[in-house]
Design brief:
395 residues; alpha+beta; 5-stranded antiparallel β-sheet; 9 helices; 13 strands
Length: 395
């Protein structure tokens, strides 16, 4: 799966918006098509009624000339319309029609651009059963119909758009209020976590474990892991809530060294889970980024590689110019969830704790710096996350 920027990542609000727009649009398209069909049929009936009245008036005088047909086998032409005489089997006996496809089930009909008016003949007409009048459709009614549909269509579109926008606001309001409530909770939580987390981390770093009893040292390491986990969550929450207000200072960073520092930061957690670690890191690979954002980017990927790994698993880091790959032998990600792992508050596995914001932050930072993310994962085999960016010239 490729993720080029965070705007491509669906959020629950965007999904709800798309679902509403699709359903609302389909509903109104059906209604408009139904109204247009009714209007079309009505206009067509009006047009045919006008032609029928005109043909009936002509028929009153022309019908008298039919006598010459059964007396002399000759059918005089009508000045107003094309005419024809059909037998009982609906075959033409004498025809001046331009279109011989006549619908005898209708008194008047429109077909192939021609209007036909069918008049049944009386008996003793030498086999003649139907007198048919024909005229070509000038389509003036159709042009007027299209013009009206366009005008009314625009007015209806504006009307349904106004209704749709207001319905959309009502539809999304509960979700936005829920997200706002969760954001406020995170903001308040980060504020309360700041002081205790800082005190715990600072005091643990000051403890000389080698001077302590092994059992006590082991307990201190567990506290250290927990403190670092809380610190990492705190950093994520702070970034998520305050990232728009944080000062950005892009600089050239030696990513090779930076990676080593971040791996050392997670060393206690790696040892606790008995995860083996390997790396193929080229020297002096440079990247231009804000140091804090680079830390959030790398820390969240490594943290997930540890968190979702199995006990005794393996993590491998490979760094070359413009490419960073971090792979693990963990539980993997189901195929149906890969497309959603970068969504806010989404977790690849519900059995593992967390807010589901780490990879969302990764996607946000990747979008900001034009970094392409590729995720390859297989359940029960592991996951590899690959970052690609435009390499920085060392000169």
């Amino acid at each position: 799966m490729l993720v080029s920027n965070a705007t491509d990542i669906s959020s629950p609000e965007h999904k709800s918006l798309r679902a509403f727009v699709v359903l609302y649009t389909l509903m109104w398209l059906f209604i408009l098509a139904l109204l247009a069909s009714i209007y079309y049929r009505n206009e067509k009936e009006v047009m045919l009624s006008e032609h029928r009245l005109s043909m009936q008036l002509v028929n009153e005088t022309y019908y008298q000339k039919i006598d010459s047909f059964y007396k002399h086998d000759y059918l005089p032409r009508s000045i107003a319309y094309n005419t024809a005489v059909f037998d009982v089997n609906k075959r033409p006996m004498v025809s001046y029609l331009e279109d011989s496809e006549v619908d005898f089930t209708q008194v008047i009909s429109l077909k192939n651009g021609y209007i036909h008016f069918v008049v049944p003949l009386g008996k003793n007409m030498k086999g003649a059963k139907y007198l048919v009048y024909e005229t070509q459709d000038n389509r003036l009614w159709w042009n007027a119909l299209v013009k009206d549909l366009l005008v009314y269509g625009v007015l209806v579109f504006v009307f349904i758009s106004v209704i749709g926008i207001n319905l959309l606001r009502i539809f999304l309001r509960p979700m936005r209020e829920s997200i706002k409530l969760l954001d406020n909770f995170i903001k308040d939580t980060t504020h309360e976590l700041n002081t205790p987390v800082s005190v715990i981390v600072a005091n643990i770093e000051g403890i000389e474990l080698q001077k302590l009893d092994d059992k006590i040292a082991k307990k201190i390491r567990r506290v250290d892991i927990a403190a670092r986990t809380i610190s990492n969550i705190y950093n994520d929450l702070t970034y998520l809530v305050l990232h728009n207000n944080l000062a950005v200072e892009d600089e050239q960073i030696n990513l090779s060294r930076f990676l080593c520092e971040r791996v050392d930061y997670f060393k206690v957690g790696i040892e606790q889970k008995r995860v083996t670690f390997s790396r193929e890191v080229d020297d002096d690979v440079m990247i231009t980024m804000d140091r804090n954002k680079l830390g959030r980017l790398i820390d969240n990927i490594i943290s997930n590689a540890i968190k979702y790994n199995r006990v005794g698993g393996h993590i491998h880091i490979e760094l070359t110019e413009g490419v960073l790959k971090i792979s693990d032998t963990g539980i993997g990600i189901p195929k149906e969830k890969i497309a959603r792992i970068f969504e806010r508050y989404q977790r690849a596995n519900e059995s593992v704790g967390g807010f589901g914001i780490g990879l969302h932050i990764v996607a946000m930072i990747a979008e900001e710096y034009g970094i392409e993310i590729k995720v390859d994962s297989e359940q029960n085999k592991g996951t590899q996350i690959e970052l690609k960016w435009k390499s920085t010239d060392n000169c």
